[in-house]
Amino acid sequence: MSDFLIETENLTFSYGSQPILHGISLRVKPGAVYGFIGQNGAGKTTTIKVLLSLLPDFGGQVCLFGNSIRRRRLGILARTGALVEEPALYQHLTGQENLLNRALLLRLPRQRTQDILRQVGLYEARHKKVVAYSQGMRQRLGIGLALLGAPDLLILDEPTNGLDPNGIREIRELLTGLSRQGVTVFLSSHLLSEVEKIVTDLGIIHQGSLLFQGPIESLRDSAREELCLDTNDNRRCFDLLQADYPQVGWKNGLPSLGGVSREEAARLNARLVGQGLAVYALEWARKDLEQLYFDIIQTPPPTP
Amino acid sequence: MTHFWLALRSEFLKSRRTLALATTIWLPVFIAGLYFALAYFKAEDFAKTGMNPWVLLAQNLFGLYSVLILPMYAMVVAFSTNQIEHVANAWKNVFTLPYPRLTIYVAKWAFAFLLILLFSVLLCGLVFFEGNLLAVLKPEIGFQDYHSYDLIGRLFFKFFLAILGVFSIQFLLSFLWRDFIRPVGTGLALTIAGAILAGWKFAWIFPYSATTRINEQFHKDKTAIWGPEIWVSLGVTLALFGVGYLLVLRRSTR
């Protein structure tokens, strides 16, 4: 019996002759809030669709709850709630009718739909047709549909899409609460900053390959110190540094350098002053997760 | 089996306020209403022919019903029942339910099948009601002098069996293609071809000619239910049901 609730082994998938996933080996522990991060087109949704058996022609092994998705599809899906891409809603029906339809299929009492409507903040709008819902309301109803069956595993693909900051915070609180109740949450996002506050574990996928996987703390621990320099002409400072330090980057509008010692920092200060720059501050800072993420996928972050 | 009934009930719930359900209920009322008005206001013309008015009414109705109304209705139902999922982008959602894919497909197919059956029964019932109402309101036509329920009922049933082949083709096309133009456009072209080719000696093999041919046979007093058109229709239905099952089983939901 595996220790993991989701476990894939060398998962591959191709659309026709175009390979999409290259040997993904996911490990998601029970009770974890697992953030699956990657840029658009990295393979997040494809992975999720394979986990949910929507793409049956994959290579490798996929096990959920210790069972192969190929052999125990129905048993696995009975314990899983999912939101894949944009919410799939019947627009000619009301929010409540959408939930009632799902409740009928899952053999749940009507009362459960009322509870979910309250939980996702749509109780007042329950009699409105979905066609009249805003993007945020649709997203919340989609999450409500995923939650309806009180699943042990919740798979959410970009759940905060279309939500305003308040809505994002509500979803974060909702997911944190579910996690406390023992629900395992697997959520994808293209923004690390959006999920870093709630996830316990992280997987970073880039161009179909899993580049990092582990507890978010291990990623934080790997954050290296950086030297940030604030001068009267930061652009010139950046140009001056670039000749000798190709790793120089930008952080919060300031030139920043990783991998320099304190002695080297003092020499740099003297050199910049010698070049006529007024140095206001030399500050040691840790890299944030977003920067680490970009380091991992080896794509430079946008410069200010 | 529980899964099937639940999925079928879900299809009925989803069909609220849809074109398929509205057409099933209101189109027969509209058609029967028009033919009632025609008979009511042209009662003398009806009476003058000296024919069995039930047969006369059926001949008037089945002309358009066989060539246009029934094939078009089958297309609308096949399109609309699948379109619900396409528009909502819901196939992926439906297939993440703890239901066998076959159950979902069969329930959807059965729902559309039941709508066509309901449409046929409703129109047949309304024709009976219309004849009896005219027997009271316009006794000079003579509806009360004949009892042709068996004949009309048999013909409605025959048309129902004959349209199943067309419905099955359209259902599969609408399942595969998410737009309106391709499934309905193809269906329309094939329906026109079916009507034009109906007189051809091999047209019995072409499902889209079946209803037109049955109407022509009715005019020649050939009203037996079972014939080559019906067998072809049922054969196509069975074959395409199998094809649909294989497709739904292997279908990737991108």
Brief synopsis:
The complex is a heterodimer of chains A (304) and B (254). With 304 residues, chain A is of the alpha/beta class.
Can you put this structure into words, describing what you see?
The complex is a heterodimer of chains A (304) and B (254). With 304 residues, chain A is of the alpha/beta class. Chain A has 2 domains: 6-220, P-loop containing nucleotide triphosphate hydrolases (Rossmann fold), CATH 3.40.50.300; 224-286, Alpha-Beta Plaits. Chain A has helices at 44-51, 73-78, 95-106, 110-119, 135-147, 165-180, 192-195, 216-221, 234-244, 262-274, 289-297, and strands at 6-15, 18-24, 27-28, 33-37, 59-64, 67-68, 80-83, 153-157, 184-189, 201-206, 209-215, 225-231, 249-251, 254-258, 279-286. Chain A has a 6-stranded mixed sheet with strand order 7-8-9-4-10-11, with helices on both faces. In chain A, strands 1, 2, 3, 5 and 6 form a 5-stranded antiparallel sheet that branches. The termini of chain A are far apart. The relative contact order of chain A is 0.14. Chain B is an all-alpha fold. The model of chain B has no long low-confidence stretch (mean pLDDT 90). Chain B has one domain. The longest helix of chain B is centred in the middle third of the chain and has 37 residues, at 101-137. The chains are: A alpha/beta (304), B mainly alpha (254). At the A-B interface, α2 and α3 of A face α1, α4 and α5 of B.
Tell me the CATH topology of the largest domain in chain A: Rossmann fold
Mean pLDDT score of chain B, rounded?
Answer: 90
How many DSSP helices of chain B? 10
Q: Can you write the helix and strand succession of chain B as a string? A: HHHHHHHHHH
